[in-house]
Amino acid sequence: MLAENQPYSPISVFADEPMVMTRIYDAEVNLAVWNRSLARQVVDYAELLCQQSVALQLRSIVEPASTTQHLIDGLPDKPGRLDFVKDVAGLVEMFADLFELERVGIRLSIIDNTMCPRFHTDHLPCRLVTSYAGAATQWLPEATVDRSKLGAGAAGLPDHLSGIYRDPAMIQQLNTGDVALLKGDGWHGNSGYGIVHRSPAINIDEKRLLLTLDFAE
């Protein structure tokens, strides 16, 4: 049942142009995805990062103008670093411009386990996510999800047993390189209607290179 202030079913929008990201301001949109292919140099550098023995965990708050130098200082000097840094810095600038932010919270991580294995919503306004290597974020379209099974409503059962979805075929997944804006419960007027999503399951020998951008507090 929809809340009185939610007279529609939230939808997802997709396009191969970055302008689709502005659709996140549409009241009915809780997921906006820019479908894109990564440059070869960016892919190669991401793979080099995943191969290194030291796990990357870069987390900071940056101003868009200082992002490039901040990343150069924090990332290993391997072939393709500048191309990779320019790509990430471009996303930071886009995110900051879209939401009129002076600072952005950035997290760039190598992940070798399933970080958020249960379907959930975020209690924040909006988050940008993109996977530079490995499996990408999964989500459930609104028409397929039983929100009563979120959190405690799952009674401790895993997603495939809780009833949060009826059929595994309903689970949708981003492609590596796609850039997604995930509207959360903290967006004004969107309480209870944040996009339902989770981290993908990964094998023991797999790694993901995940970038998330948040509003800086």
Q: How would you portray this structure in words?
A:
With 217 residues, this protein is α+β, with helices and mostly antiparallel strands. The protein is 20% helix and 25% strand. The chain contains four helices and ten strands; from the N terminus they run E-E-H-E-H-H-E-E-E-H-E-E-E-E. It has helices at residues 40-51, 67-74, 81-99, 159-162; strands at 11-15, 29-34, 57-62, 104-111, 126-133, 138-140, 172-173, 179-183, 196-198, 208-215. The protein has a seven-stranded mixed beta sheet with strand order 1-2-8-5-10-4-3. The chain is globular and about 45 Å long. 32% of the residues are buried. The model has no long low-confidence stretch (mean pLDDT 92).
What is the strand and helix layout of this fold?
Elements: E1 11-15, E2 29-34, H1 40-51, E3 57-62, H2 67-74, H3 81-99, E4 104-111, E5 126-133, E6 138-140, H4 159-162, E7 172-173, E8 179-183, E9 196-198, E10 208-215
Parallel strand pairs: 1-2
Antiparallel strand pairs: 2-8, 3-4, 4-10, 5-8, 5-10, 6-7, 6-9
Instruction: Give, in order, the helices and strands.
Output: EEHEHHEEEHEEEE
How many DSSP helices? 4
| Biggest sheet features | 7 strands, mixed
Given helix and strand content, the structural type is: alpha+beta
The neighbouring-strand order within the major sheet is 1-2-8-5-10-4-3
Helix content: 10-25%
Specify Rg, calculated over alpha carbons.
17 Å
